[in-house]
Amino acid sequence: MLWGGLLLFISGLLPLILANAWIYTISAILNGVGVGLFIDEVGKFITQNNDYFYPPAAPIIYAFFLLIALLYLYLRKPAQQTPRQLLYQVIHDLSEVLDHDLQPNEKAQMLRQLQEVIARAPDSNLGLLARELTEFLDSEALRLSTRPPTRLEKARRSLESLGQIISERWLTQPRFRLFLTGCLAISGGARLTRLLWLYRQAHLDRALSELLLRTIESGLIQTPRALQWAIIRLALEGGFSLLMVGAALLLARRNEIGGTRLATLSLVMSLTTVNLLVFYFDQFSAVVITLWQFSLLMLVSLYRRWFLQNGG
Predict the structure, then answer these.
(1) DSSP string across 2-33
(2) Which of 274, 300, 301, 223 is nearest to 63 (CA)?
(3) Residue spans of the chain under pLDDT 70
(4) Which stretch of DSSP H or E encloses residue 219?
(5) Which residues contact 98 (CB under 8 A, 6 or more apart)?
(6) Where are the beta strands (DSSP E) in 205-300?
(7) Where are the domains of the chain?
(8) Cβ-based burial of 296 (10 A; exposed 0-12, middle 13-18, buried ≥19)
(9) What is the pLDDT of residue 311?
(10) Global pTM value
(11) Per-residue CA distances from 211 to 159, 191, 203, 206, 228 (Å)
């Protein structure tokens, strides 16, 4: 907790001291590590006996990261920017000129933004400034960066090329669809099998008594309300598992748009609702399930981007 607080303090202090663009990356890394170290101790903050493994601690941590992910997705959504916002972005990007690191693609983007400002606010101060900046960027005296690509840029380009090769040669659409169908069927079918086993056990009084006894002795179900939440968890798991199996069946019948949409719905709902209860009852062992579901969601998103971009 103390190290996390120290890193959070440093990450907030650096942008106030230094003005270079690279400091934002360092600040973001320190902020992420600091928050991780800090939120990891939440169980000790919300209990009187400093119980690190207090059952609600894991759902709180998971909900915190979910909110961060949702905020990120909201902020990166493309939105219609006003001329003032576009000009702010261009002025911010002009720092690349001061750092002698202006790339040709960055110059082209700034010119596009300036042209949009001129088209939308031709007679305002914004339009006049945009014309002057356009003239400056179009000047032959402006020197662009000739540095070679960094290792990160090379790695990114290599990954893009590798992804294109995989999609064209190895992981063709029929193979990818078959692989995705199998993953969805296994993921949904495994959960349904487990739930059907519990349902069968519930019809055997002795087995049910032993099952409830083990669950109560674990300390996670101490009140009737907790037992109600456990039942709700099982019901939600069953429902979304059925949706996952349904998505696999749609993909098997080559209804790709419907199948991927149903798969996305079931996975997103599982990640954002069901797993909050899973983390309460299973604690941090639920990380494995969450990572699997997230990976499956990324595969569905990749399939839609590669093969259904126009129709999906």
Answers:
(1) HHHHHHHHHHHHHHHH---THHHHHHHHHHHH
(2) 274
(3) 78-79, 167, 198-224, 310-312
(4) none
(5) none
(6) none
(7) 2-75, 83-137, 165-307
(8) buried
(9) 46
(10) 0.72
(11) 49, 18, 12, 9, 15
